[in-house]
Every structure is written in C-alpha cells, then in structure tokens.
Amino acid sequence: MLEDPTRAPAPEVADDDQPDPRAGRVVGVGPWPGGRECWPDDPRLDPELLAEGDRRNVEDRFRYWSNAAIVAELDRTRQPLHVAVENWQHDANIGSVVRTANAVNAAGVHVVGRRRWNRRGAMVTDRYLSVHHHDGVAGFAEWARAAGLVVVGIDNVPGSVPLETYDLPREAVLLFGQEGPGLSEEALGACVAVLSIAQFGSTRSINVGAAAAVAMHAWVRRHVFGQSPVRDPGL
C-alpha cells in the first residue's frame, strides 16, 4: 500500500514510564523565603505550607493558603451553575467532571445513583466545592425544583437541540448520563431540554468528561462573557 504523503508518522509506543526531562516545570513553590520570622501576618496562610512549600495544583493567588481559606474565597464568587452526573456503573469520568466544575467555580456537583465515585480524575479538586449525592433521579429532580434550578440534559439523542444554538438558563443544573448508554429514560424525562454537542468526525459520541467541559464552557460564555448563542450556525 502506498503511503499517504499528507499523513504524519505515527508516534512511537513508549517502552517505559520514565518522564521526559522536557515535560515541563515543576508545579508549586518552596518554603516561604527567609524562614519563620519573615512569614506574612495573614490568617489565610497555612503554617505547614509556609514551612514546607506548596506543591498543590492551585492558582498562584492561592499559594500557601489553607484549604479552608480557599473554599471561603471561592464561596464568595460561586457561579449559579450546578452539574449532575448519573452514576449507575461507577463511571470513571466523574472525577474529570468535578475538576472542570471547580475550574468554572460551579456551585456544586451532584452524583445521581451510586454514592461511590472514582475520585482519581478530580485531582483533589473535590476539596474545594460541594459534591452531593442523590439516590435516584426522582429525588434529584425534586431537589432541583425546590432550589429553583432548571434541569438541562446533555446527550446526543434523537430530538435533541444543538447546544450551540440554545440559550442556557443562568440558574441551571447540567445533567449528564452514564458513559456509553447516556442519560436514562427517567433522567431524560426530568429535563426541560436535552442538548447535543455538534460533532463532525466518525465517533458516535465524546466521553462525559469532555462533554461536560464543552457544556460548562458554553454556560460561561453566555453568563460570564455575555455571548449569545449562534441562532443560525449555517452548518
């Protein structure tokens, strides 16, 4: 078979797990310069971090802050956006959803179904926002109604509306389904609208972590940056 001259060569498969020294800088900072006598008089700062350094994956403005101080500061500016994920099969993507929710400073994440979820992908960001549990869809939907939140599903099912053309409500909870089967029938029935994300390749769907990032960013564009959705994408 003739090689396609426009195709880049495939990457080699790594034969070990050793990091490449060119991978990038080390995250974080060392101990506060000058020792204890030079520590700032700031109750938000953690003495242990000042003494030993701060290697956490946090914004630079939060260096040396205690976890409690970071949470208190984030609580002052929480977005009125919630995110929910069905969890009937211990979906490994929930951790990624939690991490992105922290990045947009969402009000909370809701796990619907099984209580236990894989925290590895969250990279400990669940320390900085509330993660709630609901035994089933009915209880979750009742909570959303009582909280005055509109439930908007994200799934590429027949009849779904393009996310790119939908005006997401400000006080909303974005609901995502299980990896593979997507939203359950009960979850679809709890949504005021179900939105799909435009795709142009061969895959049938993208994973829940990626879909959640796209949908949350769409909400940020609308309600933080004031960008209206495209009504006629011309696709």
> What is the helix fraction of residues, given as a range?
10-25%
- Pattern of helices and strands: HHEHEEHEEEHEH
Strand content: 15-25%
Q: What does the largest sheet look like?
A: 7 strands, parallel
Number of domains: 2
CATH architecture of the largest domain: 3-Layer(aba) Sandwich
Give the overall pLDDT as a whole number.
90
First and last CA, distance: 35 Å
- Which strand order spans the largest sheet, edge to edge or round the barrel? 3-2-1-6-4-7-5
The number of strands is: 7
The CATH fourth-level homologous superfamily of the largest domain: SPOUT methyltransferase, trefoil knot domain
Low-confidence stretches: none
CATH class of the largest domain: Alpha Beta
Specify Rg, calculated over alpha carbons: 21 Å
Q: What can you see in these coordinates?
A:
It comes from Kineococcus xinjiangensis. This is tRNA G18 (Ribose-2'-O)-methylase SpoU. The protein is an alpha/beta fold and 235 residues long. The protein has 2 domains: 38 residues, no CATH class; 146 residues, Alpha/beta knot. It has a 7-stranded parallel β-sheet. The protein is elongated and about 65 Å long. The chain starts with 46 loop residues before the first helix and ends in a 12-residue tail after the last helix. The model has no long low-confidence stretch (mean pLDDT 90).
